[in-house]
Amino acid sequence: MMEIREMDHIYQYNDRMGLETLHPLISIVDFSKCEVQVESARLRYGFYSVFLKDVKCGDLQYGRNYYDYQEGTMVFTAPGQVVGVARKGEYIQPKGWALLFHPDLIRGTSLGRNIKNYRFFSYEVYEALHLSEQERQIVIDCLKNIELELHHGIDKHSKMLIVSNIELLLNYCVRFYDRQFITREEANKDTLAKFEKIMNDYFQSDKPQDIGLPSVQYCADQLHLSANYLGDLIKKETGKSAQEHIQLYLIDMAKEKVLDTSRSISEIAYELGFKYPQHFTRLFKKCVGTSPNEYRMQN
């Protein structure tokens, strides 16, 4: 297995691509201006990265479907994530653009406080954002505005203007992901059906007693998705979070079991995967409006 190279600083990436470092905490890369080919490698970044890959999306398979956006695929990574594929002796010439920015750049800003809300930084590479030509041009315009500011030189306004333009770009990406969830509605419904089946199979097995309640991460792993992507997909489709769906499914099952008066509420709680019966009672009352015992008596 090829080693993972650590890349903690922006200048390290610029040096690798043969580029001048205009700012220690941010870089805009137009790969069409890079004259060097780099050896393929697995890299662990210490900074945020946004890549706009110029490829024909009609040639990309996303799940079981092909999509016909002309070109433009965006991939987002957060500090600590590993990027790239290592093939010994293979050299590549990337195409497209990259935005790289260090966490120190946004520390103390509104973007720094809200960066966790841009959940696509935790999506998997195969959950990329596929752009239309119009969307791609908007992204490039945002990147060029940041590049222009970097060439202006650093002054007391630089940080505010640069961070504001990054935030604008990320907000556009939120809009484009919302569009993507809508345009892939049929594929999303297929995922929702599989999600329901996973929960049904889970509660029909011994897993609740063995490992406890099902988590969003467990369901996402079964669907080969990241937890954030699954959560956002379900939220866009239904208006409820993945965790809420799990809880509602659990409560529907609990209602049936509670009506079986041959078993105590504690036995039912343990059977459903709760470690403590009082936690089951608390969730049941929150969702139903009455305690399990009260629901049993009323029905």
Structure, described:
The chain is built from 13 helices and twelve strands. With 299 residues, it is an alpha+beta fold. The chain folds into two domains: 180 residues, Jelly Rolls; 113 residues, Homeodomain-like (Arc Repressor Mutant, subunit A). The protein has a five-stranded antiparallel beta sheet with strand order 2-11-5-8-12, sandwiched between helices. Helix 6 packs across helix 8 and helix 11 packs across helix 12. About 5% of the residues have low confidence. Keywords: DNA-binding, Transcription, Transcription regulation. It holds the Pfam family HTH_18. InterPro entries: Homeodomain-like_sf, HTH_AraC, Tscrpt_reg_AraC-type_HTH.
Give the topology, please.
Elements: E1 4-7, H1 10-17, E2 26-30, E3 38-39, E4 42-45, E5 48-53, E6 61-62, E7 65-66, E8 73-77, E9 82-83, E10 91-92, E11 96-101, H2 103-106, H3 110-114, E12 129-130, H4 133-152, H5 158-183, H6 185-203, H7 207-211, H8 216-223, H9 227-238, H10 242-258, H11 265-272, H12 277-288, H13 292-298
Parallel strand pairs: 1-4
Antiparallel strand pairs: 2-11, 3-10, 4-9, 5-8, 5-11, 6-7, 8-12
Helix pairs in contact: 4-5, 6-8, 8-9, 10-11, 10-12, 11-12
Question: In a few lines, what is going on in this structure?
Answer:
The chain has 299 residues and is α+β, with helices and mostly antiparallel strands. The protein has two domains: 4-183, Jelly Rolls (Sandwich); 186-298, Homeodomain-like (Arc Repressor Mutant, subunit A, Orthogonal Bundle). It has helices at 10-17, 103-106, 110-114, 133-152, 158-183, 185-203, 207-211, 216-223, 227-238, 242-258, 265-272, 277-288, 292-298; strands at 4-7, 26-30, 38-39, 42-45, 48-53, 61-62, 65-66, 73-77, 82-83, 91-92, 96-101, 129-130.
